[in-house]
Amino acid sequence: MRIRNLDTFYWIATLRSFRAAADKLNLTQPAVSARIQMLEQDLGAPVFLRQNRNAELTPVGRRLLPFAEKYLALEQDVLSAFSGQTSIKQTIRLGASETIVASWLPDFLSVLGQTRPGLSFDLMVDSTDSMRNALVARELDLAFLMGPVAEVSVTNKDLCTFRMVFAAAPDVATRSDHWSLEQIAAQTVLTFAHNTKPSRQIRQMLTSHNNSLPAMTTSSSLGALIRLARSGFGICAVPETVIGPELASGELVVLKTDTVLPPIAFTASYVSGSPVSGLMAELTVDAVEFLRENPLETASRV
After folding, report:
1. What are phi and psi of 120, to 5 degrees?
2. Which of 206, 24, 189, 199 is CA-nearest to residue 127?
3. pLDDT at 201 over 60
4. Nearest alpha-carbon partner for 94 in 133, 144, 130, 137
5. What is the value of pTM for the model shown?
6. What whole-number distance in Å separates Cα of residue 9 and Cα of residue 32?
7. What is the model's pLDDT at position 78?
8. Residues 39 and 58 placed together within one structural domain of the fold
9. Other Cβ atoms within 10 Å of 273 Cβ, number
């Protein structure tokens, strides 16, 4: 029995799709199907029900899956144990919030390039909801997101928090020497996508000081929010660290106010019990240690 066929079987069973497994393994679907045919010939029995749309396991396939998981876990242990000597390359599917990408992630990946030279990263920058779904579907190995992810199969480790501020273009910021929450609520507020925790918290704060629904423009793109704020369209409520360049250049100014926005917290989240969960736990420790040794001015370890 060829090990690569067992590996292919595992990913089809996990992703419940021949096409998804082909994408994961960078193979064509005919190549994936051929490997499964060879595996079934070796076993003398089918491992998938062919009439089902999804890749559903047969009783033989269900018996085989724990052995495939053990093999892949052992393979990962070997790679980790000899990471300093092996020339084998491994790609990690990493998801990260734009806030993380705009702050410390580039420096962290640069450090990993020196300490773990066998690793490369397929980076997904997206909303927390999208990354949560991708993580549960095992389309991501590790995600740095606004967690925790409330799934039994997912391990969450506290990572860092970011201070949130109200900021605006100078001509908007200077309309008041000291902004009350009532004054802020009367303006257009730019912040995270409407279904995120920070957006809900800010909407609740503003609604309590406004007789009508607050004027909020939300987006999953921090870059878009920052550009709108720079143009004078409204007041942005974002992590201070991501507007560092704009604050330094004077394009944006932090509002003087007694209103304190709740900080946003991030977790490192990964699927428990997967073949790469041990490595993901190690990378999480690396990330926490990196933040401890390289504290950011506006981000802190939880």
Report:
1. -130, 165
2. 199
3. yes
4. 144
5. 0.72
6. 9
7. 62
8. yes
9. 10
